[in-house]
Fold these 2 entries.
Entry 1:
Amino acid sequence: MIETLLCRLENFQPLADEDRRVLQQALTPPVRMDRGEDVISEGERPEHVHLMIDGWACRYKLLADGQRHIMAYLMPGDLCDIHITLLNRMDHSIGILTRAHVAGIPRQALDHIYAHHPELTRALFWSTLVDEATLREWLVNEGHRPADQRLAHLFCELLVRARVAGLTENHCMELPLTQDELSDAMGLSTVHTNRVLQKLRREGLLTLRGRTLSVHDWQGLTEFADFDPLYLHLERSERMSDLLGGI
Amino acid sequence: MIETLLCRLENFQPLADEDRRVLQQALTPPVRMDRGEDVISEGERPEHVHLMIDGWACRYKLLADGQRHIMAYLMPGDLCDIHITLLNRMDHSIGILTRAHVAGIPRQALDHIYAHHPELTRALFWSTLVDEATLREWLVNEGHRPADQRLAHLFCELLVRARVAGLTENHCMELPLTQDELSDAMGLSTVHTNRVLQKLRREGLLTLRGRTLSVHDWQGLTEFADFDPLYLHLERSERMSDLLGGI
DNA sequence: TTTTCACATTAACATTTATTACCAGGAATG
DNA sequence: CATTCCTGGTAATAAATGTTAATGTGAAAA
């Protein structure tokens, strides 16, 4: 049930069977959720760390004028910030984008891991560092890249992340996001997102159809997007070249 | 020497004298640096956590076309990410913006704090959570707010952060950033930044002159910018109202 | 089948922001 | 004292993106 998470963490360092078991046993039973529900909403007190078992979610904020800004996509195997329970109130919401199952890690279970399983603790800290680095890369993306490069960069990232979690087949992945949801993350209008997607398709870089992303020209796409996967910190570099060469 | 840091951390929870002393003693002697130098550069291996003693710095990345994107401003009392030493290589650089002094916290000293000073550890974790939340707010800012609101929002944030670190006088703070540096953070051209600053000045919201930011209409500015300080997580709420009412 | 609905697409037009290029003032420098 | 450089300010034009509104399309629902 937590293969995707383990698969992701092991890009940082291999885990002992003991660590894998401890992590598995720390989880609360997964809860089934549907598109449109919030895992947790802005202003609420965070009681657990959440883990996406399957399905997709996003971090988002609502602005004064009702617009939604998506700040991160969570795919299967992704964790919410493991320190989150330190805070009194959430400053953003986590919303479900597809039918999904979400498990939790109670605070005490985490404290126990910190105290007794240093390797696993390091892997979890690594995971939050990657989340933070991803946030920084998104900031650069929105601040300095035009719409077409911006979307291209997002697709590069999502494909690598999916690959790392074992969720790709060749150059394809399930990508259950509407153009509206892409727009809210990229800070674009849906109309413009649509224009840009067509352009990327016309240029033979990728297609996005029927909830599936297919990248046709990985090298062309990464060059166009100025994509450098360093920020994903796949520290076991043999695997990094597997990943990137293999795509 | 670490008053600003302590001042900031105590917005989360009060610290025992013992914790204050431990933190003080963990520091390496501050190094003097000048504008244009890098504390650490992209690709380098992070050996320490850094602390700004005085002066300003920024996190930034250089893009393929040579543009610089600033992802965070570091003012006195700000720490780099305390987990950073887990990573093999920096995915961004930290550059000095003014004459400054920078101290370090060695990895072992931090490990010792984690093992023996839980209150202080919580405060340090809180600090990184705030940094991350700030990054998310910047993402929203760049993605969804027009240039004038965007700059206004930045100034709101900087004034509150400075206030929290004890660096304001009334409605004023030292803000040693050029319009170029503001532009690189906001994803705007310098020309447009200049136009917008004039507009904010004309409307009586603030002036930025001679390295000093003076806010003339705090309430007007926060309303215009849609600024909600929740994301700064000043958990001791009595202090929050002090801060915000008092400005 | 028909209807409905969510999502994608298209077009015309408006607005924001970038680009380029030039000027002005003040501080540092020789 | 002249010079240079950094920073801020201005204007004309171009490019990117937003807005509004209408249409198409395919899958689910009735």
Entry 2:
Amino acid sequence: MDLRALETFQAVVATGGIGRAAAKLHRAQSSVTSRIHQLELSLGVQLFHREGQRLHLTASGEALVDYAGRMLELAEQTRAAVRDNEAVGQLRLGAMESVAASRLPYPLAEFHRQHPQIVVNLQTASSRGLVADVQAGTLDAAIVGESVDTTRFRSVPLYVEELVLVAARGSALLREPKQLAEGTVLVYHSEGCAYRRRLGQWLEAQHIVPARMLEFASYHGIFAAAAAGVGASLVPRSVLEVFPQRDALSVRDIPPRVARLQTALVTLRTRHLPVLAKLEACLREDAAAVRGGTRRGKRTRG
Amino acid sequence: MDLRALETFQAVVATGGIGRAAAKLHRAQSSVTSRIHQLELSLGVQLFHREGQRLHLTASGEALVDYAGRMLELAEQTRAAVRDNEAVGQLRLGAMESVAASRLPYPLAEFHRQHPQIVVNLQTASSRGLVADVQAGTLDAAIVGESVDTTRFRSVPLYVEELVLVAARGSALLREPKQLAEGTVLVYHSEGCAYRRRLGQWLEAQHIVPARMLEFASYHGIFAAAAAGVGASLVPRSVLEVFPQRDALSVRDIPPRVARLQTALVTLRTRHLPVLAKLEACLREDAAAVRGGTRRGKRTRG
DNA sequence: ACATCATCATCGGAAAAATCGATCATGGAC
DNA sequence: GTCCATGATCGATTTTTCCGATGATGATGT
């Protein structure tokens, strides 16, 4: 049984003749005849009763009419369903460097696995810059640690980052927050960085003014400097976890109120891309898995 | 999209690999690869994400898994449905000569159209003989004008025959029933004939004893003799209607109580043939059409 | 009665598709 | 590094599908 044979059969029934069906299907009459015969053979049943020139449906044939219609309909639905699940084009996604480094690799891989046709354009910037880019339409979506105007933006909570103080293993800087005033604080170079702002607010509330500040363009730089004993920094624990030489660093928690920072996927309410919903699904699923500690397929290498 | 391609796809998903699917389907690995590629091409969609050697379903692929299952299931149902509607074998049907001549041609043609594989073995005999044959198992079913024992037989009412008196056009025999005593009465040769019995009862009730009786083996004989002025006979109007030279005959009604005779399809309760149900359906439908006067496809030739 | 038309079946060859076997490419395991 | 498992690719072969021509059959028109 073949879908094309069913179509042929349906055409013969609809037009009431093999010749007319052949014309309708732009095929030779002999082809239609063969096809019907083959269908009858494969079903082991006579579909038409031939008396002279005219064809009449047999009981089996009448049964098949119904099922053929259903099968072809389902085939059409299948094509449509598969088509609808196929997203094409590109997706411009922005994220904070920290998120891009620690959180995104897995869900983005998953997304690409599910939608190989989508070209994901990932840019990193500060939270404020990202929100501005989404607003400007330069980005389709961004993952930020900012709270945004919910009238213009749609904001889907994703990960809760926990900020921790890090410094070289054994460094005196972590013993008490006040010690930070004596040393160098390593910060991300952009003013729009949500973590840097959080750090600034915390220090200010405690009337701590660091002796020196060093700006870095990447977390690798910050970690390298911290590990070398240059100073201390406030970083998300998730980023620290993907830092290869994290054994060279000491970590110190800070009060949860200051430490916890919600990140969210932010999109313009006016922009509705079907692809975006798929990406959002991947991210939410991953965030949920991270919260539950059961990220499937996660490979922990020795 | 092809059902075999869907099976292949399903096998690949089930076994988790093209090679294993090929083994399962007893096909070469390259064939499966081609088939999947062709399926992807025909759907215009990437079903698997190839990273290195392993295959992962894309979102489109996952959608197809569901639909492929449904399609193959429906295909199986189709095969089953068509098979179930296919009846094979032979059917031994008995009928009174009158019914066989006047009523059966159309519904039997319809039945044969619907079930070309069934060999219908039609025998004519008297009502009593037919019932005996059904009882003996020589016949699968019979159409008779008898009332039968409903504990052993199943009886489905079909046609109501109307018996009429016929004789040569202008014959005096039809003027009054009593005239029959003066002439020759033409009867069917079997004692078991329901019509003949009805005639006998009627004449007896009126204390009419025909001068002569002639037995015939067929209605053609009776009609020919009647038309030739040999005598009168009591025949079903339906048979008269299919007699070509009916213009040579005069017809006279008799009281409905005597004239009307119900025929029925009789089968043994212990015998259940699926084919028989189909035949019964054809006969009932035809009988209903005759009652309603709307027998479809009936061709009245000029 | 005869020719004509419409219809479907059959046949042989051509075109297309599916399959196979062998080989290559790639990434992981030892 | 070498093996091993896995798919992709290629050319040859087999199978399937299609076409065009021809034949058979019954209805229609003259």
